[in-house]
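Exercise 3.2. Students should predict the tertiary structure of the chain below and write it as structure tokens, then compare their answer with the key that follows.

Predict this chain's 3D structure.
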Amino acid sequence: MNPELETIAAAAAAAAQPFADTNPRDRARALVAVADALEANADGLVAVAMAETGLAEARLRGELRRTAVQLRLFAETVADGGYLDVRIDAADPEFALGPRADVRRYLVPLGPVVNFAASNFPFAFSVAGGDTASALAAGCPVILKGNPGHPELTRRTEAVVVEALAAAGMPDGVFQVVMGQEEGVAILRDPRVKAGSFTGSIPAGQFLAGIAAAREVPIPFFGELGSLNPVFVTEGALAERSGELVSGFVTSVSGSAGQLCTKPGYVFLPEGHGLDQGIADAAASVAPHRLLNPRITEGYAARREAILATSGVRAIAEGRVEFDGEGQGWVTPTVVAVSLDDLLAARETLLEESFGPLAILVETDPGTDLAALVPILLEGNLTATVHAAAGEATPELRALVRVLTEHAGRVLFGGWPTGVAVTPAMQHGGPWPATTNDSSTSVGTAAITRFLRPVAYQGAPEELLPAPLQTANPWGVPQAVSPAGESTAWGANL
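Answer key:
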């Protein structure tokens, strides 16, 4: 490891225990300080982000605002203390299974975390984004591997975050940045790093997850990878609000040039739906949008050409891909349709994520058992969406919802998946290949649990217990206490 990386890893390791020992309210105030600093520097940061990513100003300002709100949400989570999941079993000589010792359990920070930043969310899933915010909230130092798509923004945001954390009294080494693929891999392999997080492609995520698992001491790794985000539209929904469906669909597919992990890639709907002209007209009104970088444009163009050339595919809105004088790609939406039989025949070509403004309508025959198709066609997804008529709750629809629950982290009704709200209950994860760990999330307050582990103290004297487990409870965190004498009555009043 080169001297710079050695210094960074050593600083993160040295900061780990002092940072873990900080009072939750002090850590919460530090997160708020970072949020305030990001908003205070919004004009300069957004200008740099626009130049490096090609994303629109309104989108980037909204994303920066979301990032600040996310930091404040985690601040509230930390200050509350419930995330520590404190459980106290009082000593009980009359316990039903024999004398029980005093046992006290809570969650502790894992230690330094390496976070691989995403390209398509230069604020919300990058330097100070959700992975960083939840790791810092948990009390873990963060080593951020910057994304090569926005290097200047990475360094400017780093400076804002470091200054805010220092001013809030957090230890040196709590937040640092490295650039370069080899550097990121080296840090992930370092034994002082205790967890990893990633947002990006399936191949890159598999590669990094493999490194984390193959270490001499394996570490937890949460990777958000790929998702097709299927949408299912019933005949009742078409009859009730076809115009609204067209508008919402095209807006969701084309937003940020389709460079969103929750973009609806496939819409299953009855044949004879009659939406072609409406979709074509709506797509034609979408102005060209720059993709993040030439590499992404090349990948999107190749994927689009392969789909358009597939037998049975009908172009509804062909869209286009054009390169400017600087080699940057500009695109408009492409929407195609295919019968279910043709999709099945060409599944190896068609059933793959398209990172850009492209979606496929899958036209089904009346009476098609969609619930039976889902396991055949779809792996794990971040989202699955159902559009049904008001009050529609047929056995077939219930069966579809039940099977979608097994294949997605978030099941939506009557909406579109590209809106990921920053709220406590949000689930942004799903079965493989949506993520490498389907038991967690990268958005919402539950994201903090990725960077915590449980530990219990048995028979410990009060003076040696950590603050959250002490009977005096100096941090004032919620404690679930199981007093002596309860066990003999368990189950009696059910």
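Discussion points: DSSP finds 15 helices and 19 strands in the chain. The mean pLDDT is 96.
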